[in-house]
Design goal:
By secondary structure, the protein is an alpha/beta fold. The chain has a single domain, classed as Vaccinia Virus protein VP39 (Rossmann fold). The chain has 7 helices and 9 strands; from the N terminus they run H-H-E-E-H-H-E-H-E-H-E-E-H-E-E-E. Strands 5-4-3-6-7-9-8 form a 7-stranded mixed β-sheet, with helices on both faces. The protein has a two-stranded antiparallel sheet with strand order 1-2. A hairpin with an 8-residue loop joins strand 8 and strand 9. The longest helix is centred in the C-terminal third of the chain and has 16 residues. The chain is globular and about 50 Å long. Bound molecules: S-adenosylmethionine (SAM). The site of S-adenosylmethionine (SAM) has 24 residues, from helix 4, helix 5 and strand 4.
């Protein structure tokens, strides 16, 4: 599972470097609310992310620069229950900043891959892993279109926010379950969460997307149950 941003396009190494310097200079490394074990490069009002958008017409929503309820709750869970990943090979699907990957690595996972479709997330994951002294391998790909990867656990933080995506992710996770891969989901009860298929493992109150620590929201950590064939 090796696909780094700079492998895709010989010209992209310079870009990668520029983005790395931009993030390092403009997004300070801050402790994550309620997860003092992890520090992340975090966008704030002064970060000037618009400059990235101006430079690159392909620039999408900078999910990788913010906290999400699903990732926060799943990271907290992995740190509280390291037995869920210790010694295992873990894939973080839709990794964003890499918060869940970093929690898995800190909890003793044998290997951690962080997959996302956003090239900027690859850079953020690399920087955030380094800031936390852990090893995480970024993968730039939409793995939901392929076969189950060779891992023991798939972690999914906040990936059920759009109907079509949620459908594709659920179908992929079903194929993974069929191969004996464990699935852990963290989510603040977004609209397209497949709730009927989930078993709640834990709930925490966390911030969601915002900077505003006052807007706490209960979010769950779940396992995905096998499809019932009744
Ligand atoms: C709401 S953010 C959550 C990020 C992180 N998991 C967290 O909870 O903090 C969703 C992330 O999923 C990524 N994403 C969307 N579709 C994807 C796909 N098909 N495969 C991998 N990543 C995807 C986005 O680029 C974004 O970084």
């Amino acid at each position: 599972m090796q696909s780094r941003i700079s492998d895709r396009d010989p010209d992209s190494a310079d870009d990668h470097d520029w983005i790395r310097r931009f993030i390092a200079a403009n997004l300070p490394v801050l402790p994550v609310p309620n997860i003092p074990e992890i520090r992340l490069h975090k966008a704030g009002p002064q970060s000037g992310l618009r400059r990235l958008a101006k430079r690159d017409p392909q620039f999408g929503s900078p999910y990788w620069a913010h906290y999400w309820g699903g990732g926060l709750v799943l990271a907290r869970y992995l740190l509280d229950r390291p037995e869920s990943v210790v010694g295992r090979r873990v894939l973080d699907l839709g990794a964003g900043s890499g918060i869940v990957s970093i929690a898995a690595a800190k909890s003793g996972a044998a290997e951690v891959w962080a997959a996302d479709v956003d090239p900027y997330a690859m850079v953020a994951i690399e920087l955030n892993a380094a800031a936390n002294n852990v090893s995480v391998q970024p993968i730039l790909a939409d793995l939901t279109k392929g076969e189950p990867p060779d891992v023991d656990v798939i972690c999914v933080g906040d990936l059920f926010y759009e109907a079509a995506l949620a459908k594709r992710v659920t179908a992929f996770l079903d194929r993974c379950l069929g191969q004996g891969i464990a699935v852990l989901i963290g989510d603040p009860w977004r609209a397209h969460l497949p709730t009927a298929r989930l078993r709640l493992l834990a709930e925490y109150a966390v911030t969601d997307f915002g900077e505003d620590i006052g807007s706490m929201r209960r979010s769950g950590v779940f396992t995905l149950e096998h499809k019932s064939h009744r």
